[in-house]
Write a structure and sequence with these properties.
The complex is a heterodimer of chains A (373) and B (517). The longest helix of chain A is centred in the last third of the chain and has 17 residues. In chain A, the strands form 3 sheets. Chain A has a 4-stranded parallel β-sheet. Helix content of chain A is 51%, strand content 9%. Chain A is of the alpha/beta class and 373 residues long. The chains are: A alpha/beta (373), B alpha+beta (517).
């Protein structure tokens, strides 16, 4: 068991815990057992057959945000999330997963998304009908979390498309509006594969699939490939898609855009997709200003607390991690956070009273008045 | 792997629950397993062979000094041993719960409380990790000047408990030189504030507690000196023919009153490793050196280590010489003059200039060495470092005798760092094959025992900054001599119930002292 990860597990076991100062969970909870070092050395004992694989071990594998801050600090680049994802899969297979996870699955099954809602119906209320009727090879995949928790981002995206005279993008019109990321990060592999296969068969008819959620980009582009459902270069992030238009089109800027903003790098953007410069370049391109940076930014970003499925089991700690991130915004006396992950947006909104939290596309849409010609 | 069930009375646990809530403590087996060891390599050897050290009965995570005080009072009432815990970076076994009991993990007390830029002081809670503290200071244009190799995982409380030193202690001093004021909770359950007496007369009360390794108190907050970030940093490297000449050159430099922030002298093997790592200006070396560099890869090394004396002789026959790296920092003009003087002395002593690159390379990779433990163990080798100190007259003979004595058992290399007017600290790094649980532990203990006795025989001191913990405890009677009485009086006063980190640092009980190692 877990022998494919022997080297990673052994390296962590012998390490004098050099990633301690990077882990947001450890910084908040203080429990060595939930530090990357602790989780890995415990799992190594499971691999060696010294500790049985039971509910306690299964639960341990969910004590991580999968933000990869530890990997960033590790000289060996040891990757913890792949190990944990494997353990989570085994936990589900052996019926050892925590009740919060099995409960989550029941909820998911109702409408094929984590929100137990008919998200297609909701999407139809957000986006004008004309975008559903398009016969187009280019579609925008909104993502379940965006539809459920920050629908204005979808509205703003299509508004921006109109301002930039991009008229060939339709909205993904299927009843399943989830890529399956919540399933695979929870270890629900069979359910993920089932969903991914259905998605794949509809996705493959499109030439380009645009999405604004970094976790969705990674899942559709990388995780699907692991299950021989590769969509390859068809999947593009909204930033990749917008970049040439924002460079080439002569648009008008609103006058009241000089608001001080701070940019939060979502873990999936910077550590999984390595997209650090592009969002800043887009902001600079459009507004001529550079966002204020968090002390931990770019590849050294700090998680909002909503990473992976951590918050399902650890809501309080997850909220505390978020509040630590927000403290810095208050200290810097900034009113607006720009980011690009629906989960981060939702988390920040839930944990702050008066801050404005915006997706990058919404922000760009706010700044751009329309094209000049 | 065996973790025994916790031995904690229900009444005690109920009080803990009331005090800290259900998220403030744990008796879970998995949690207790993760507190069975710190970063001492004897425990790592055990982990290699699926063995564990003693487990605590519970772990608690207080959020403030008042909670710490209440925990100590509870422990006194129920006679529960207390083991303070910070980042778990200690390499002397100082946080192993040898008698079970309660580990008080301080990591939830992790804030800077005050940054006084006028008087250049910072007050922080003891659970704050070193890197986070230093990063925060640097963001505001200051530095603590404290850069131990363990900065990524060590806590402020750990610094104070073990009398830590950073890589730049030659300029900034050790933690005991930095601390101005502390708040501690003693084993009597009292909160004591050692007022800043740096500008007054009388005893410096801080020094009663610094280095006490949790045997007298828990550290809760500390006020430390800070410095503005240096205006400039210059780098230089020099190669000397042998260690004796290099040591003498460094003595002359330090006694001239120059304060480089880094001075590190590497012996021939250590120099070989320093120069064999990627460096843009690295000159092509002779064939034998290249062969040796290749030889010192894990698998080959394991075979070669069957004959450590032969390997050491081979390494020391290689004519790479001994490299010293210097880092100078501060005001541009002062730095320039310090660098000029150092290079002049070095040249007069026969040193060959290697330029800034080896020193720059070291600076860029200054914490990298700690990552080397993992691949070594993974390839069936164990390692550890013995950091000892001595005055200038002791250091050359200490180096020579330690290499001669220990190379019979392991591949050994050394560097001199942390140098001062009156002497410095030698780091001996040894590597040997893992050859079975018992055999390896016997070899490990033998190396340490031999090293400690030799250092004491030659007039050195057995620890410069890693602390005593469990590892060196049995040598403390010789180390302190009749001065141990002072400690025992303090121990009797501040820990009247004997609950504070038992089995560490020193005991009046000979059996405990011997058992410790």
């Amino acid at each position: 068991m877990l022998d494919q990860f022997e080297k990673q597990l052994e390296y962590c076991t012998y390490c004098p815990r050099l990633c301690q100062s990077a882990c947001p969970v450890l910084a908040t909870e203080g429990n060595e057992a939930h530090a990357p070092w602790g989780i890995m050395q415990t799992l190594n004992m499971v691999r060696r057959g010294e500790i049985p694989f039971d509910e306690e071990i299964a639960a341990l594998s969910y004590q991580c945000l999968t933000c990869k801050a530890c990997t960033e600090q590790c000289h060996h680049g040891n990757e913890i999330p792949p190990v944990l994802h494997e353990v989570r899969k085994l936990a589900v297979k052996h019926d050892l997963a925590p009740p919060e996870i099995t409960g989550f699955l029941e909820k998911f099954h109702r409408h094929n998304n984590p929100f137990s809602k008919d998200l297609l119906q909701k999407l139809k209320k957000i986006v004008p009908a004309k975008y559903f009727q398009k016969d187009t090879p280019v579609i925008y995949f909104a993502s379940c979390t965006t539809i459920a928790q920050c629908p204005e981002v979808i509205r703003d995206t299509f508004e921006l498309f109109e301002k930039l005279k991009i008229d060939f993008v339709g909205i993904y019109p299927e009843s399943i509006q989830c890529c399956g990321y919540p399933l695979i990060t929870g270890g629900l592999e069979d359910e993920f594969v089932e969903l991914a296969e259905i998605n794949f068969n509809t996705f493959k008819q499109y030439k380009t699939i645009i999405t604004g959620s970094p976790a969705c980009v990674y899942t559709l582009r990388e995780t699907y490939k692991e299950y021989a459902l590769g969509l390859g270069s068809r999947v593009v992030s909204i930033n990749e898609f917008l970049e040439p238009y924002l460079h080439n089109i002569n648009y008008q800027i609103k006058k009241s855009i000089r608001t001080k903003i701070i940019y939060h790098d979502p873990c999936y953007s910077c550590r999984y997709l390595h997209e650090v410069d592009r969002p800043r370049e887009l902001i600079g391109q459009v507004t001529g200003i550079q966002p204020v940076e968090f002390n931990h930014h770019g590849e050294k970003t700090a998680c909002s607390g909503q990473g992976g499925c951590y918050s399902i089991m650890n809501k309080d700690v997850s909220d505390q991690i978020c509040k630590v991130r927000l403290e810095e915004v208050y200290e810097k006396n900034i009113q607006t956070i720009i980011t690009q992950c629906p989960s981060c947006i939702h988390k920040f909104r839930k944990n702050s009273n008066h801050l404005i939290i915006k997706d990058l596309v919404s922000y760009l849409n706010d700044c751009i008045e329309g094209t000049k010609d | 792997m065996i973790i025994e069930a916790p031995r904690i009375k229900k009444a005690f646990l109920a009080k803990i629950e009331t005090l800290l809530g259900s998220n403030g403590y744990s008796t879970k087996t998995i949690d207790r397993f993760n507190y069975t060891r710190d970063s001492n390599f004897r425990s790592t050897i055990k982990a290699y062979y699926n063995k564990t050290e003693a487990a605590p009965d519970l772990i608690v995570w207080p959020k403030n000094t008042e909670q710490v005080q209440k925990l100590v009072k509870l422990a006194i009432r129920h006679r529960v041993p207390i083991v303070p815990f910070g980042g778990g970076s200690g390499v002397s076994g100082g946080t192993i719960a040898v008698k079970g009991g309660m580990i008080i993990d301080m990591k939830r007390m992790h804030r800077i409380l005050k940054l006084d830029t006028k008087n250049l002081l910072v007050t922080a809670q003891a659970g704050m990790l070193g890197k986070i503290l230093e990063d925060e200071l640097q963001r505001q244009g200051y530095t603590l000047g404290h850069f131990p190799s363990s900065i990524l995982c060590a806590s402020l409380g750990g610094y104070l408990a073990a009398r830590s030193a950073g890589q730049q202690s030659s300029r900034y001093g050790k933690i005991e030189d930095m601390v101005r004021e502390m708040e501690v909770v003693t084993g009597r359950g009292e909160i004591v504030n050692t007022r800043d007496v740096s500008n007054t007369s009388g005893m410096d009360l801080n020094q009663i507690f610094v280095g006490s390794e949790g045997t007298l108190c828990l550290f809760t907050t500390a006020t430390l000196k800070i410095y503005p970030l240096p205006e400039t940093q210059n780098f230089q490297s020099v190669r000397f023919k042998n260690m004796r000449t290099a040591i003498e050159a460094i003595r002359r430099i330090m006694q001239l009153g120059i304060k480089p922030s880094v001075v590190r002298l590497y012996d021939k093997l250590d120099s070989l490793l320093l120069l064999s790592t990627k460096s843009p200006s690295r000159k092509k070396r002779d064939d034998l050196t290249d062969i040796l560099s290749k030889l010192i890869k894990y698998q080959s090394l394991k075979t070669a280590l069957a004959m450590p004396q032969f390997l050491s002789a081979l390494v020391h026959a290689v004519s790479t010489g001994c490299v010293v790296i210097f880092v100078f920092e501060g005001h541009k003009r002062i730095v320039k003059e310090e660098e000029r003087l150092v290079m002049e002395i070095s040249k007069n002593m026969g040193g060959e200039t290697l330029g800034p690159d080896p020193a720059k390379h070291w600076m860029e990779n200054r914490y990298r060495v700690s990552y080397e433990a993992s691949p070594l163990f993974y390839h069936g080798l164990f390692t550890d470092t013995i950091e000892v100190a001595g005055t200038w007259d002791v250091l050359p003979v200490l180096y020579k005798e330690m290499i001669k004595s220990l190379s019979q058992h392991a591949l050994i290399m050394a560097h001199l760092s942390h140098v001062y007017m009156d002497g410095g600290s030698f780091y001996f790094t040894f590597v040997a094959p893992l050859t079975g649980s018992k055999k390896t532990e016997i070899l490990y203990d033998k190396i340490w025992d031999k090293a400690m006795k030799l250092v004491q025989k030659l007039g050195g001191v057995i620890s410069h900054h890693h602390g005593i913990g469990r590892l060196k405890m049995k040598h403390m009677a010789t180390e302190w001599g009749n001065g141990a009485e002072i400690y025992l009086k303090l121990k009797h006063y501040y820990d009247p119930y004997g609950i504070m980190n038992p089995g560490k640092l020193y005991s009046a009980d000979k059996k405990i002292m011997e058992k410790a190692a």
